[in-house]
Amino acid sequence: MKITHEQWASKIGFVLAAAGSAIGLGAIWKFPYVAGTSGGGAFLLLFLLFMVLLGYPLLLAEFSIGRFAGSDAVSAYKKISPSSNSHIIGLIGLVTCFIILSFYSVIGGWIIIYIFHAISGSLSRLTVEQYNVFFQELISNPFATILAQLIFMIITIFVIARGIQDGIEKVSRFMMPALLILFILIVVRSLTLENAWEGVRFIFYPDFSKLTTDAILFALGQAFFSLSVGMSIMVTYSSYVPKSQSLPKSAFSVVLMNVFIAILAGLAIFPGVFTYGLEPSAGPTLIFSVLPTVFEQMFAGTLFMILFFLLFLFAALTSAFSLLEMIVAVIIKGDSSKRNKTAWIVGLSVFALGVPSCLSFGVLSNVLIWDKTIFDIADYVTSNILIPLGGLFIALFVAYRFPKQQLLEEIQLGSGVTETFMNIWFILIKYFTPIAIIIVFLDAIGMLSFLK
């Protein structure tokens, strides 16, 4: 059944929702750190280059598939190439979204707990070591973390159950500007700190001596992963886009917002880290143990801590919306009468699947698969195997299964892009993108270790 009765109400609504999907937790806590330790400005230039050559072409490819087919991700591939088994690409995306949301919601729950404790004042006047102890005790607490994970999923389910315009678009039109405003407030405050320049230098100073093979491969992978491509999420979101909207411009806007937020994250985090002589370590430790110490030492620090975790929650939720929407859209196949019930059944099923990941820091910490916890194995399988494979298959599908004339006409609708642009984009998606994704995949599974 073709999706005809649900569309984005406005161009900006689609762009904000797509950008919200792309701007996830990794852009806020991982990208700034790796940029700083991998050459700063040199790494940023490389990342921008890969975003243009890899991220943008693949994002536009997913947009083209979705709007042309006007249907859910599984049906879209089948509609464009009915004689092949290309619908398997959509099924890979469905499984990927299901698994990712199951452990993504665990982190969302942690953020909710931190907001509660920040508001209550129980996070005040602690040292880095005490914050680290608090974090470790928190993630090993089965009752608190499962309850918070459930709350995160209920919020996500509620929004998806309300549909495209009244749910995702309405919330994204609030959350994305709010996220941007909160970021700017924190950045302005961070840049007024005593050693703010050291933090700025950490991120932007071009040190080409630190641009190692690892850094280059990470820049390549980050350009791919940071746009929510490879899971057919953008196929789903673009299926609600009217023919009058320019897909190339929308894709460019999403890329631009993603890069801008990643840079803002660095400017928000590292001036304070360097001002107070803290270690700019990556991952959860930075967000949940180091940053609260930074905010604690600022004037009105508790307020800025609450604001930061709110924007962190908004980033997590907008990504969660897209993950759940992709799954729901496949099941309801355009029948909006089934949306509410399906959203709750699927959402609660995702929550149930995520409980073992939630408990892998406590009662199930000794349960290991390939020497990894349940949480880590879910992350590894999706990030290192399923997403790269999905992205590779999407690129090959567009290059070899999507009739070229129909593909180019779809991209030109509402955009008026030149033939030169179209030819360059098609060359990138046919040759460069598959090769780049294969390199990312081989690196992710450890087959390029001889280069390091």
UniProtKB/TrEMBL annotation:
Keywords: Membrane, Symport, Transmembrane, Transmembrane helix, Transport. It is a multi-pass membrane protein. InterPro entries: Na/ntran_symport (IPR000175), SNS_sf (IPR037272), YocR/YhdH-like (IPR047218). Its main location: membrane. CDD domains: SLC6sbd_Tyt1-Like (cd10336). The chain crosses the membrane at residues 12-29, 41-61, 88-119, 139-161, 173-192, 215-240, 252-278, 298-331, 343-365, 385-403, 424-451. Pfam families: SNF (PF00209). PROSITE patterns: NA_NEUROTRAN_SYMP_1 (PS00610), NA_NEUROTRAN_SYMP_3 (PS50267). It comes from the Bacteria. The keyword Ribosomal protein does not apply. It is found in: Membrane. Belongs to the sodium:neurotransmitter symporter (SNF) (TC 2.A.22) family. PANTHER family: TRANSPORTER (PTHR42948:SF1). NCBIfam families: Na_transp. This is Transporter. It comes from Aeribacillus alveayuensis. The lineage of its organism: Bacteria, Bacillati, Bacillota, Bacilli, Bacillales.
